[in-house]
Model the fold of this input.
Amino acid sequence: MPAYDSLLTLKTLGVQTGSTNGTPIDLGSAVPNGGQLMQFDLMWNSFGGTTPTMDLIIEESPDQSTWRQVTQFRTISGANDGTFAGANLNGKKMPRFGLVTQRYMRYRSAMSGTGANVGFGLYARGMDAVAREVPLMSF
Done:
């Protein structure tokens, strides 16, 4: 069974204190002219620092050296006391969708603000219309 047929953990729930590249996940051998629609779920439970922000990007690669953006979450921003501001006020879970066509996948985060820290987890799952074994699409 290909890796994308099960729930994938790109980052386990925990606090991150700076920008980073996540550990690449091997999805198995790439299929020429194929791709897999995936749902990415960002869940966060804490946010701190002075004027903190976090941008989170999902990337793919055929060889773990050249990376291409698949999708990006909207910027998360919050107040110093850990509350969420603006469009993030009522949400602590954010989904995004992207078409993965390469063998490796990872997340990349860019954090800014003095002492910025975010407690979050990031998960992915292959999508299909009936949530059964997920066949690859051909273009």
Q: What stands out?
A: Residues 129-134 have pLDDT under 50 and may be disordered. DSSP finds no helices and nine strands in the chain. The radius of gyration is 16 Å. Residues 6 and 125 are 6 Å apart (CA to CA).
